[in-house]
Amino acid sequence: MLNAKKAVERLWVFDLDGPLMMTGELYEKALTGMARVILEIFGGSISKQEILTVQNEIDKAMLREINPGNGKPYLFHKSRFPLSLVRTYKFFCRKIGKKFIKSTAWRLSRIGDRVFDECEYEMIVRSQVLPLFRFLKGKGDKVIILTKGADDVQFGKKKPLQNLGIMDYCDDFIVVPDAKDEMLKKIKETNKAIRYYCVGDTYFEDVLPGMDVGYFGIHIPYEFNWKERGKSEEIETCRDKKRSIAFKDISQIKQHFKMLEKTAKLKGA
User: What Rg, from alpha-carbon coordinates, does the chain have?
Assistant: First the structure.
């Protein structure tokens, strides 16, 4: 991690998936493909929404399953998403009483694997990222990307950022396997700045942990965020308005830069 010898004006920590890359679209395609396959098999006995709800519950539960190879939770291991699609299919086989077909399971695994196709990544980088990062670096600010997930998956997403020139304006790219709390604290402790900002699409995991250690929070809701889907009004109601702001996309950081600076200064971030 890069350490600053003297304080910069501002330090920005951006979440990757959602604010900078439309990763949710890849998962949405996979989930739609899974639902289509399962509906072909079970017909009108279940609905697409029921399939998606079951898959979401299975996916969340799988995060904490223990890997017998190392005794630690699997978390976001690359194999887990395709497996959750297969387990969703198996769930409905048991519920409805149909035979589990291995060729169908293989088909679902293939659908899930496409989420990690690095050829897709460059196409889902948001067009606003490069001009925003260039603008922030032009102000003399420090810009860091902090993302949660498996190393082999997340570092694969760094390549298109390099290809597009975005990493030329980014000081660090950090991957953590689970919660960001400790890393956000460490970044703040090892990088001197007058003000700190954290930007993310998951309020309770990206934004609030930063706010709790002195960052000003910028929440950018994302329609394909599986953890916040259907909860946008609820989250906005409980969002700490004194220490954060909500934007529709990252371009608003540049558009409202002066207002954001004034607001963060007043709030002591």
Answer: 20
Q: Which of 232, 229, 236 is nearest to 59 (CA)?
A: 229
Is residue 220 within 8 Å of residue 248, measured between CB atoms? Answer: yes
- Which residues of the chain have a pLDDT value below 50? 1-4
Cα separation, 144 vs 186, whole angstroms: 12
Q: Please tell me the predicted confidence (pLDDT) of residue 268.
A: 54
Query: The pTM is what?
Result: 0.87
Tokens of 268: 């002591």
| 17 Cβ contact list (under 8 Å, min separation 6) | 23, 24, 147, 149, 157, 201
Whole-angstrom distance, CA of residue 153 vs CA of residue 24: 14
Report pLDDT for 67: 78
Q: Please, where are the H alpha helices in the chain? A: 23-42, 48-62, 80-96, 102-113, 118-121, 129-138, 151-163, 181-190, 208-211, 232-238, 251-255, 257-267
Question: What does the domain layout of the chain look like in residue ranges?
Answer: 8-22+126-267, 25-120
For residues 251 and 129, the answer to whether their CB atoms sit within 8 Å is no
What would the pLDDT profile of 39-56 be if each residue is shown by its tens digit? 999 987 899 999 999 998
H helix runs in 63-128, sequence order: 80-96, 102-113, 118-121
Q: CA 78: distance to chain centroid?
A: 15
Express each pLDDT in 156-207 by its tens digit: 999 999 999 999 999 999 999 989 999 999 999 999 999 999 999 999 999 9
**What number does CATH give the domain 8-22+126-267?**
3.40.50.1000
